[in-house]
Amino acid sequence: MDRLALLLVIIGALNWLLVGLFQFDLVASLFGGQSSMLSRIVYTLVGIAGIFSITFLFKERKTY
Known about the structure:
Structural class: mainly alpha
Low-confidence stretches: none
Strand content: under 5%
Radius of gyration: 14 Å
Number of strands: 0
Number of helices: 3
């Protein structure tokens, strides 16, 4: 679950990077616009993954 959340957060971060630099929304272009159901699902999953990833701040790190 942690890796999936991290992957979705990375996808969201890359999408925002493209929006910020080039005004290009990759998710919207792949799934038919910002208001399409698939785009909204991806945006929702990325948001949930971001909220879930807050838990990474409070986990103890393993030292080897």
